[in-house]
Protein backbone atom coordinates (compact mmCIF):
# COMPACT_ATOMS: atom_id res chain seq x y z
CA UNK A 1 0.00 0.00 0.00
CA UNK A 2 1.45 3.35 -1.00
CA UNK A 3 1.98 6.16 1.53
CA UNK A 4 -0.70 8.18 -0.26
CA UNK A 5 -3.21 5.35 -0.01
CA UNK A 6 -2.42 4.88 3.67
CA UNK A 7 -2.81 8.62 4.30
CA UNK A 8 -6.16 8.63 2.53
CA UNK A 9 -7.32 5.60 4.54
CA UNK A 10 -6.28 7.23 7.82
CA UNK A 11 -7.95 10.51 6.88
CA UNK A 12 -11.15 8.73 5.84
CA UNK A 13 -11.28 6.77 9.10
CA UNK A 14 -10.75 9.94 11.16
CA UNK A 15 -13.51 11.74 9.25
CA UNK A 16 -15.83 8.77 9.71
CA UNK A 17 -15.11 8.71 13.44
CA UNK A 18 -15.64 12.47 13.76
CA UNK A 19 -18.93 12.23 11.87
CA UNK A 20 -20.15 9.49 14.22
CA UNK A 21 -19.24 11.38 17.39
CA UNK A 22 -22.16 13.89 17.33
CA UNK A 23 -24.53 10.94 17.10
CA UNK A 24 -22.90 9.34 20.12
CA UNK A 25 -23.45 12.56 22.09
CA UNK A 26 -27.10 12.54 20.99
CA UNK A 27 -27.45 8.96 22.24
CA UNK A 28 -26.05 9.99 25.63
CA UNK A 29 -28.70 12.73 25.82
CA UNK A 30 -31.45 10.25 24.96
CA UNK A 31 -30.18 7.85 27.60
CA UNK A 32 -30.65 10.59 30.21
CA UNK A 33 -34.39 10.53 29.43
CA UNK A 34 -34.72 6.84 30.37
CA UNK A 35 -36.24 6.45 33.84
CA UNK A 36 -34.80 3.01 34.61
CA UNK A 37 -31.29 3.53 35.97
CA UNK A 38 -30.11 -0.03 35.28
CA UNK A 39 -31.00 0.32 31.59
CA UNK A 40 -29.34 3.75 31.49
CA UNK A 41 -26.12 2.26 32.80
CA UNK A 42 -26.20 -0.71 30.43
CA UNK A 43 -26.68 1.56 27.43
CA UNK A 44 -23.89 3.90 28.60
CA UNK A 45 -21.55 0.93 28.99
CA UNK A 46 -22.31 -0.20 25.44
CA UNK A 47 -21.78 3.27 24.00
CA UNK A 48 -18.48 3.67 25.86
CA UNK A 49 -17.39 0.29 24.50
CA UNK A 50 -18.23 1.37 20.94
CA UNK A 51 -16.32 4.63 21.41
CA UNK A 52 -13.32 2.70 22.69
CA UNK A 53 -13.35 0.39 19.68
CA UNK A 54 -13.51 3.35 17.30
CA UNK A 55 -10.52 4.97 18.98
CA UNK A 56 -8.65 1.66 18.84
CA UNK A 57 -9.22 1.43 15.09
CA UNK A 58 -7.78 4.91 14.56
CA UNK A 59 -4.77 4.06 16.75
CA UNK A 60 -4.12 0.91 14.70
CA UNK A 61 -4.11 2.98 11.50
CA UNK A 62 -1.64 5.44 13.02
CA UNK A 63 0.63 2.68 14.34
CA UNK A 64 0.64 0.84 10.99
CA UNK A 65 1.32 4.06 9.09
CA UNK A 66 4.11 5.04 11.48
CA UNK A 67 5.70 1.58 11.21
CA UNK A 68 5.44 1.72 7.43
CA UNK A 69 7.19 5.11 7.29
CA UNK A 70 9.96 3.98 9.66
CA UNK A 71 10.49 0.76 7.68
CA UNK A 72 10.57 2.63 4.38
CA UNK A 73 13.04 5.21 5.72
CA UNK A 74 15.46 2.62 7.10
CA UNK A 75 15.30 0.26 4.13
CA UNK A 76 15.82 3.16 1.75
CA UNK A 77 18.92 4.36 3.62
CA UNK A 78 20.54 0.98 4.29
CA UNK A 79 22.85 -0.49 1.68
CA UNK A 80 22.47 -4.27 1.73
CA UNK A 81 25.30 -4.92 -0.74
Topology record:
Elements (H helix, E strand, L loop, with lengths): L2 H30 L4 H41 L4
Describe this structure in words.
- The two termini are 26 Å apart.
- The chain is built from two helices and no strands.
- Helix 1 packs antiparallel against helix 2.
- The longest helix is centred in the C-terminal third of the chain and has 41 residues.
- It is elongated and about 60 Å long.
- It has 81 residues and is mostly helical.
- The protein has one domain.
Summarize the structure.
This protein is mainly α and 81 residues long. It is 88% helix and 0% strand.
What key phrases describe this protein's structure?
single chain; 81 residues; mainly alpha; 2 helices; 0% strand; elongated
Computed CA radius of gyration, to the nearest angstrom: 19 Å
The number of domains: 1
Q: Tally of extended strands? A: 0
Tell me the β content.
under 5%
Number of helices: 2
Amino acid sequence: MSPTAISVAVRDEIQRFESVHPNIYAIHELIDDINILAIQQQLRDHIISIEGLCKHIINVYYINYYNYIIHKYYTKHINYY
